[in-house]
């Protein structure tokens, strides 16, 4: 959802001098972007859809993987805010972030980032005996993104989307050894949809002064890329349900029943971006949209029922005439 400045804010206030008393604890918490933890808490468990058997051990390992990515993501956000503090001051919303506004000194933010990385190291060492290279690859990717990739048009959106795919890949590795190609394509392309929608809104809000890579974009290009990636996300997701999802004989029925709510969710998102101008914050936009939430619940119900019937065939005679 696009965040709009309050009309009551004094027009002459300079960034870094907010009214009221300092709130160091709240600023440090905001620096880690707790709302964005939903990216890991919701995306890592997608691996459950591809797991043949769900056990208590697998659920525990998925919780560990989600927690590790929450810490990794928080450290990345803090590091990015330090690196981008000068450019963020040109953005109508990001200029009020703790580091860009000056409420949190750079030295304190750097120590905070190191503390988060240290805690992540403890979590990885104490975690299950499973590969955790996707977490390390995520950190390396974001380091490269902060230094180089974020300045390369088109490459920048691909790097961000790859971070989402790495979350699901980590979930697959801890839940089991099965990794579906179509599931990874669907997650990657859906992440591209969200990132491109955000870039489009940034073009309208602040332009390349805040993000130099935006010089390689236009609103028309963003519109075309949104169409392409939406089609790819829908097709990949439906092919996954039909061919690779562990739904047994109910894969085709699940694909057919999920098509209307999946398309409706995409339509709602495109309306939010292209008509309502709410593509600036994809996390709040998705979680706060009732239509998308209802579509998500419908898809979850269909997939849950199909999974239950596929794993417990004895239930079929009890619910069919």
Automatic annotation (TrEMBL):
Pfam families: UbiA. It is a multi-pass membrane protein. The keyword Membrane applies. Keywords: Membrane, Transmembrane, Transmembrane helix. InterPro entries: UbiA_prenyltransferase (IPR000537), UbiA_sf (IPR044878). The chain crosses the membrane at residues 65-83, 104-124, 181-197, 221-241, 253-270, 290-310. Residues 1-24 are annotated as: Disordered. It is found in: Membrane. Its main location: membrane. It comes from the Bacteria. One of its GO terms (molecular function) is transferase activity, transferring alkyl or aryl (other than methyl) groups. GO terms for cellular component: membrane. This is UbiA prenyltransferase family protein. It comes from Microbispora oryzae.
């Amino acid at each position: 959802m696009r965040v709009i400045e309050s009309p009551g804010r004094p027009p002459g206030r300079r960034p870094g001098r907010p009214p009221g008393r300092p709130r160091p604890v709240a600023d440090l918490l905001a620096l880690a972007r707790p709302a964005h933890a939903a990216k890991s808490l919701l995306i890592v468990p997608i691996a459950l859809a591809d797991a043949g058997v769900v056990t208590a051990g697998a659920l525990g390992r998925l919780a560990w993987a989600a927690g590790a990515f929450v810490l990794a993501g928080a450290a990345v956000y803090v590091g990015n805010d330090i690196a981008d503090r000068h450019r963020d001051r040109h953005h109508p919303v990001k200029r009020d972030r703790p580091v860009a506004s000056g409420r949190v000194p750079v030295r304190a933010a750097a120590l905070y980032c190191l503390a988060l990385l240290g805690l992540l190291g403890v979590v990885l060492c104490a975690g299950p005996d499973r590969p955790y290279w996707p977490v390390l690859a995520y950190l390396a990717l974001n380091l490269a993104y902060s230094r180089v990739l974020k300045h390369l048009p088109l490459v920048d959106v691909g790097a961000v989307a790859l971070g989402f795919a790495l979350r699901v890949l980590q979930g697959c590795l801890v839940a089991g050894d099965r990794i579906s190609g179509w599931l990874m394509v669907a997650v990657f392309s859906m992440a591209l949809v969200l990132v491109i929608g955000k870039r489009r809104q940034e073009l309208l809000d602040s332009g390349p002064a805040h993000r130099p890579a935006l010089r390689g974009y236009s609103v028309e290009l963003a519109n075309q890329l949104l169409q392409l990636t939406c089609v790819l996300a829908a097709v990949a997701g439906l092919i996954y349900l039909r061919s690779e999802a562990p739904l047994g004989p109910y894969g085709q029925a699940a694909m057919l029943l999920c098509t209307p709510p999946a398309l409706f969710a995409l339509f709602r998102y495109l309306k939010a971006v292209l008509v309502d101008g709410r593509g600036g914050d994809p996390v709040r936009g998705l979680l706060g949209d009732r239509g998308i939430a209802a579509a998500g619940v419908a898809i979850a119900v269909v997939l849950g029922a199909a999974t239950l019937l596929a794993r417990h065939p004895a239930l079929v005679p009890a619910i069919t005439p």
